[in-house]
Specification:
Layout lengths: L1 H29 L1 E6 L5 E6 L3 E6 L2 E10 L3 E8 L6 E8 L3 E6 L5 E6 L3 H9 L13 E2 L5 E10 L2 E6 L8 H11 L8 E7 L5 H12 L5 E5 L14 E6 L1
Parallel strand pairs: 10-12, 12-13
Antiparallel strand pairs: 1-2, 1-8, 2-3, 3-4, 4-5, 5-6, 6-7, 7-8, 9-14, 10-11, 13-14
Length: 246
Amino acid sequence: MALIFMRKIAFIFILIFFNSCQNNKEEKKFLGTWYAQEAYGEIIEVTFLEDTLYITDDSGNYAAEWKLLNNNRILFYNMHGPTTLKEIKFNYEIDSNNLELDRIDNSLISEYKKADDAFNYFQKKIELNIDLPNTTDSLMVATVTLERFLIYAGYRDNNLIVKTDYSNNLSNLKYEVDSIRNIYKDHGKGLMSINLIADKDIPNKSIDSILEIINSTSVEYIFRTYKNTNHTYKHDLNWFGKLLKN
């Protein structure tokens, strides 16, 4: 009987140890900094340390403790910052580069990517490598209208890709611009701007071809995004650039 009892105790300890190792392995996936972008463009930055997490968004800075629960759930608790909430519980899915948090009390789902900074997150999100042109000039906000449209020009596997949020090329650009304009036609004065976010090494001939396509649309303003010492896009994606057409 004593031998059977000892075997049961040993099995329980092995099971506890196994579960602990599994939890530690899962927890390590969270460690690091993750980024998400809200509907209106605001960046959310979440940094997981071993027991603590820090959140930065447009409303301020937060700190909390965190722990994993059963059934792929995670709890943020002992929260401090501009909130009355003391804890929030989420369902989660995670791999080495992607984290989905599904808030249990309101079904709000946020999709995060692990990244070095906000611009690295942006590149991962659009699946392009873009090194912005640098300038010492002063830059302006890369839109002057409520209706704005983004075009991305960068590299993937050494191939130049020019795309929008809606298409993998510019073949439908005129239709896309007109569709966005119609959605927001009751706002502002009906003017629309395009912001070209393009790699610095794209040949001028290719940039000219892109601008020719843009000019064939009904858009009134064209910007190209640049970076300088004041605008590095490390913590936000508020685009600044130079006006190419007005």
